[in-house]
Amino acid sequence: MICGIDEVGRGCIFGPILSAAVVFKKKPNFIKELDDSKKLKKEKREYLSSLILENSYYAFAEISNITIEKINIHNASLLAMQTAYENLKLNCSLVFVDGKFVPKITAKTVKAIIKGDSIIDEIKAASIIAKVKRDKLMDEYDKIYPLYLLKKNKGYPTKEHKNAIKKHGVLSLHRKSFKLI
Fold it and tell me: RNase H type-2 domain: which residues (predicted)?
């Protein structure tokens, strides 16, 4: 079994980092449509996400902004990937993770692939479902904190988001060690 893992939200200033681990049940017929989630339009991501969830074993992990503050974003990214794999509860012979660092994963072979979310199908799939899940989380937070435009900025440090922080203050879910304004 081959597993792909990716994380989203690393560059955000609000909310958790979220990771997904994906193992295809069998080679899906939509494999050629997969790509790095950042390169896909929202509608295509959501369509592919539903197909991936139907045709794979998958798991997610969220690392809170509080933990990110304690252990730093690099270690939080690795922990998110490790935890997503552990939540999968499968023994994979090969695990690919996006990036250049290998998290603590107990699999026979674990390889970090730079730009893996554009190269390895399982990482592409993990990238897509993680992005869709985190975007939906930001949409929910937008209902609670509409002044911060989270539905639009998804927690990233856009000009509007930074202006909202200046005007309305820092929320408990903001990453305070990041440059907020």
Answer: 1-181
